[in-house]
Amino acid sequence: MIKEQTMRINPIRIQLLLMILLFLGCAGQPIKGVDQGPNPLRGMVHERFSRPISDPSIFVWLNRSDLHLDAHDQQLECEILHELVNIEVKDWKSAVDRLWETNREFRKMVSDEGNWDGYEYPLAEIYYLLSAVQPSSWEKDTAEKLYQQHLKQVQPNELTGYALHFYIQALLLNGKIETAIPFLPRLGQFKPADYFLDDLAYALSCSLSVKDTEHSLKILELILETGITDHPDKVDQIMCALLPDLNQAGIIEQVVQALSSFVDQHSVDNEYQFVPLMQEYYRAFIISKRQPNRVTVQIQVILASKKDAFVDHRLVGIIESLNSDLNFRGFRLLENRHFQLMKKESGRMPIPNGYRLTVKPVELSEYDSKMNVAIHKGGNCVFNTLVKTLDDGVTVIGGPKIDDGMILLRIKTDFYSKGV
User: Fold this and answer.
1) Interhelix angle 193-209/161-173, nearest 10 degrees
2) The pTM of the whole model exceeds 0.70
3) Pick the residue with more confidence: 276 or 173?
């Protein structure tokens, strides 16, 4: 008969064994599947567009020696973003090359090998990394291919944090302003307001650079809607900085129209510097529209004689203006020409005895113009003067002498476009 023996467990030994195991676990790598806490790459982003990652907390998190993420897409995202910490523009290409050489998944993604459903976050960041390389060789084309095959259908609610931050930048860099617009309000949920407002200003600059007026105005409205209540000083600063670019882009009239109701609604016209500045640009725009863009010049070449008393019937009604202080008796109309001239555009015509007349508007304003009048014979300039004329005004000047008389030039100007 076998006698059963009972083994007594010593509680002190059990506690000691647990302490040893705990110590060994902390000293080595954590067991796969252990919760690493919230992933800060998917949360709030304390970064601005067009700059490398500089948030110290993100830098510390990416460099944790015990960092181990179960999800492959998160692990790949960490490796990509680690390359973007404090990176300089000249090093973008080197970052792409390092990832290509050291990361198999990156190579497969860029080469479009395999199924990458569920990898939208690292794909968005790779799209940005490839788009930002300057000068680009294969990177731009590869970025566009990546976008068309994997990211084109991505919706704003499918991205958060740094992936959203970099994806919008990639869209802007590639001129996809319309596509980027719906993602911008989503980004505002993951950025402090002052960071987000700076990003909107950057987005507006990108939109202006590709002459996208419609979406530039939408971004402008979003800037005001985002910050006018809680961050008025920041908005005022941004608007003052943007207005010269908006004016240079030739859309200040559309800006005033788009923002007029908003300005009235929020009663900001007496509180912020950007409103009077905007109105100043608009007034200058209105005045510029009133400037004639061309002038109609009528030139009558008249032979005035002291001996011949003949008066051309086509000159009846203007003889008095021709004869003041000159004591001529006869007047013949030799030539009558009309020119429609832009500023600094020349009109030319022959006049008797081998002379050639040139007229050129050198200044045009709402009320008057300055006209250069020159007469050449052969290769020599024999007459050159600057004539100031009024709208619908007439100027008579004396030209070359011929026999017993003189060539008179009667110049009448009518502004072709008087604006609004």
Assistant:
1) 20
2) no
3) 173
